[in-house]
Every structure is written in C-alpha cells, then in structure tokens.
Design a protein that fits this description.
CATH class of the largest domain: Alpha Beta
Number of strands: 18
Structural class: alpha+beta
Strand order of the largest sheet: 2-1-6-5-4-3
Largest sheet: 6 strands, antiparallel
CATH topology of the largest domain: Alpha-Beta Plaits
Number of domains: 3
Helix content: 40-55%
CATH superfamily of the largest domain: Reverse transcriptase/Diguanylate cyclase domain
Distance between the termini: 119 Å
Strand content: 25-35%
Shape: elongated
Number of helices: 17
C-alpha cells in the first residue's frame, strides 16, 4: 500500500513538472501565470451547463456574445470565430456534446485541436485542450484554451529560414530537393515535367544598374513564376539566377503548352519610372518518359537549358538524347568570361534620339576612368551622345549616317575624341554595327579602342622586332 501511495505522489509530481515545463516553453514563469493567461471552463455534458468560465485574450473580445451557461450555444459562438485550413478540425463537430460522449464511452478521455481565431480584426492561433472525467452528476468536460500565436509564429519563422530563400520567398535548393524526391516517391505513376530556368544576361543588371536592380529582377522573376505556375507546382531558387520548377500532374503536351504560354508573357519590372526587361533560357525533361529518378531528370533539364543558352538564349526546349553530344567546352563559357576577355570596350545603345545605353563592359568604364558602371552611367547621363566630345558630336553622327548609307552590312568606322571623368581627352577608334532587335528596336553594337594606347603597343612591338633583327642568331655567334 505505501508503494502505491508513493507511485501516485510521484505521478502527481511529474504532472506538475510537465505543466511547469510546458508553461516555461510558452514563456510563463509558473503554471499559475500560464493559467491566468488561458481561457478555461467546465461543462456537464449531460445537462449542458457551463461553470467556471474564465476569459482571457483573445476570447475576451467575445465576452458580450458568449452565453454563460449554455454549452451548445457557447460552442457554436466559438466555432463562428475559429477557422482552420481545409476546415479541419471543425471544433463545432469535434467538441460537440454527443461526439464527446461517444468518444468517452469508447475509452477516449483527451482531445486537442489547433485553430485560428479571428475577431475584431485580430488573428490568433489557439490550442484547445479538453479532458473528460466522470462526476457524480454526469460526464464533465474540462476545457483549457491557450494563445500560442508567438510560439507558432516563431516556429513558422524558423521554418521559413530553413526552407525558403530569403530574397524571393521560394523554396531553397535543399528543401526543394527534398520535396521533389518525396513527390516522386509518393506518386510514381503521375506525369510531370522538371524545368530548369536561367535568367538571360543577369550579370548585366548587377553590373550596369547595380545589385539593387539585380535583386528586383530576381524577385520579379520569382513572383511571375509563382503567379503563372502556382497551380500544383514546386518552385525553387536553385541559387544565383537559376530556378527549378516541378510541374506536377502534367502530360508532356500539357507541360509544353504551359511553358510556351509562360515564355510568351512579357517579363518586365518597373522601378522609379524605368522599365527593365528580362528573359529566360528554359530546359525541361518529362517524368517518367525521360527518367524516373530526380537527379537524372535534373541533369537532362540542365543539358536542355544549356542547349538553349548555346543557341542565342531566350527560348525553351525539351531534352533530346542528341543534346548529350554537344561540345561542353562551348557550353561552359560564361558570358562574363567572354566580355572580360574581349580586346576592347563594348557598348550597346539604342539608335534613336536619346541613344540610351543598354549595355557596357568593364573595359568601357575603365576607359572613361570611372570606378564602376553606375559611375559611368551617371557621368554620361546614360546616353551615347554624352560620351562623344561635344565638339565632335555633329560630325560623328553625320559620318555614321553617311557610312551606313554607303554599305549594306550596317558597319561604320570612325574616330573621335572623348573626355574622361578626370578631364583627360582621348582619341577613340569606333567600330560599330547597326542592327534591329525584336526586343529593343534599332540598336548599335560598338567596339571602342584607345588610339593612343593602340599606337603605343604597335610602336613598342616594332622596337622589339627591330632590336631582335639587329642581333645575330645565337647559332652564328662566335664561340
């Protein structure tokens, strides 16, 4: 008998300890503080009488609307303000008198539900606990309702940091991989398509307009993907300017049609009255026709995407086996590597009245003795007209038009002066190509060379050659 009493006391101690731990987890120093901040009441399920009703926020907002002693009416009022995703659980059903009595007769004594409470424009997350016990006058249900909003929000915030990309709000690579593999495991018979998407010439937005605009473009791209593919799809930021999308439950024909319509959409973002256009290179592979394993499909979508990038970008294509034989050295060259290695300053600008600069490489802002692309754009007013020395501008534009009229290949060759940011005057050789772009209209591609630098290099090379020519061959030297 003493052992039984001691066991009961030990159990009571553990219950109190568990209560303290739970209260502490919610941020309350004691169980008493926790109870003072929780709504509670008891119900006689036979008579429907409510006793000991104690209200705390946020249910205190309903004080005038809650009937004090009638449980069915009390439950109906609470259910009106409590919602949950997909209406599960419906507390009006879960805690209904007959349901509780049936569950108690079946041996169930404890119930809980998490729900969202909305009243007076405020939203809170509630944990509702109910314990049933037999009393002398019937079956009693004891309710405890606690506000777990802060705890839930903290958990959701942590989950978002773990699973979601901070900039775009999309799944990050790690979480995305997990969700895709889980989908293939659960639905092996479904049809699906895996898309790999790369933003075309993304480095230009960062280099020419700054990282703030680059981030703006990334967020706009993510928003457009969510808006268009949101139906039953997983959208992931792979990293950098690359995205991965799993189109669930699509046949190959449906996937092709949907991607085609997305590609035809205008992809633009406006900031401070300036519009930035962007496009995508998209490769995709279909499940299970082209692979039943996630990583195999991802590899094939990657090959298809690089096929698009190899053929002028801004397109989409489904993987084909012959793509495996593409020359990977050509595919691996990055645009930034090519532009940094070009022997000259590259400038692209619109062939209109304003002559807005669309693109420039690092060598160009170095030529003007600017420290960054932003500095060059500010210095030039973002226009080719302000790059040319003002005394040469009219002559340059006349000569360009005259040369374009004299040939059919759209080329011009011209020399003029520029003024750098520090005030230096340089003589520049300009080789330009006039073309029409479906996206931007009439534009000029121009290479600029520093004439003085070119002449110095040529003269230095000539001197070395002359010096070597004056030296006898090593084999003819006397021993």
């Amino acid at each position: 008998m003493p052992d039984k009493i001691q066991t009961q006391r030990n159990a009571e101690t553990m219950y109190r300890l568990a209560g303290k731990c739970f209260a502490g987890y919610l941020g309350y120093p004691t169980i008493e503080h926790f109870l003072q901040n929780s709504t509670s009441f008891s119900v006689n399920l036979i008579s429907g009488a409510v006793s000991g009703l104690y209200l705390t926020d946020p249910l205190r907002l309903l004080r005038k609307q809650l009937p004090g002693k009638d449980y069915p009416a009390l439950l109906n009022t609470l259910a009106e303000y409590c919602t949950a995703e997909n209406r599960e659980p419906d507390i009006g059903v879960l805690f209904e008198t007959d349901n509780l009595l049936q569950q108690y007769q079946a041996g169930e004594q404890y119930f809980k539900a998490e729900t969202c409470f909305i009243a007076g424009g405020e939203e809170a997350k509630l944990l509702i606990g109910c314990e049933l016990s037999e009393m002398t006058d019937g079956i009693c249900a004891h309710f405890l309702i606690c506000n777990v909003t802060k705890l839930k929000n903290a958990g959701e915030s942590l989950l978002r940091r773990v699973e979601f990309d901070g900039l775009t709000g999309l799944y990050n690579r790690s979480a995305g991989d997990t969700h895709i593999m889980e989908y293939f495991r659960q639905y092996p018979q479904d049809s699906a398509a895996l898309m790999l998407i790369d933003l075309d010439y993304f480095k230009r937005f960062n280099d020419q307009y700054g990282h703030d605009i680059g981030d703006l473009v990334l967020k706009a791209a993510a928003w457009q993907m969510e808006k268009f593919f949101g139906r039953d799809s997983l959208i992931i930021r792979n990293g950098g300017d690359e995205f991965l999308i799993l189109l669930k439950n699509r046949t190959p024909a449906e996937a092709h049609e949907e991607i085609s319509r997305f590609f035809a959409e205008p992809h633009v973002v406006t900031h401070e009255e300036k519009t930035y256009r962007f496009s995508f290179s998209i490769g995709y592979a279909t499940y299970p026709e082209q692979g039943s394993e996630y990583h195999d499909l991802a590899m094939k979508a990657d090959i298809a995407m690089y096929h698009v990038k190899m053929h002028h970008r801004s397109n989409f294509v489904r993987y084909r086996p012959e793509m495996l034989h593409q020359k990977r050295t050509q595919l691996s060259f990055h645009l930034g590597d090519i532009l940094s290695g070009i022997p000259g300053a590259l400038l692209i600008y619109k062939a209109d009245g304003r002559e807005e600069i669309l693109f420039a490489n690092d060598q160009l802002f170095g030529m003007f003795e600017c420290d960054s692309m932003q500095e060059l754009l500010q210095f030039s007013g973002d226009s080719f007209r302000n790059i040319v020395h003002p005394d040469d501008l009219d002559r340059v534009e006349r000569e360009i038009q005259t040369q374009l009229q004299a040939n059919t290949c759209g080329l011009h060759f011209i020399r003029y002066r520029i003024i750098t940011k520090t005030g230096r005057i340089k003589i520049i050789d300009d080789i330009g190509h006039f073309v029409h772009s479906p996206r931007y209209g009439n534009i000029f591609y121009v290479f600029l060379y520093d004439s003085e630098q070119k002449q110095q290099i040529i003269e230095a090379g000539a001197k070395i050659a002359e010096k070597e020519a004056m030296q006898p061959d090593a084999e003819n030297k006397p021993t």
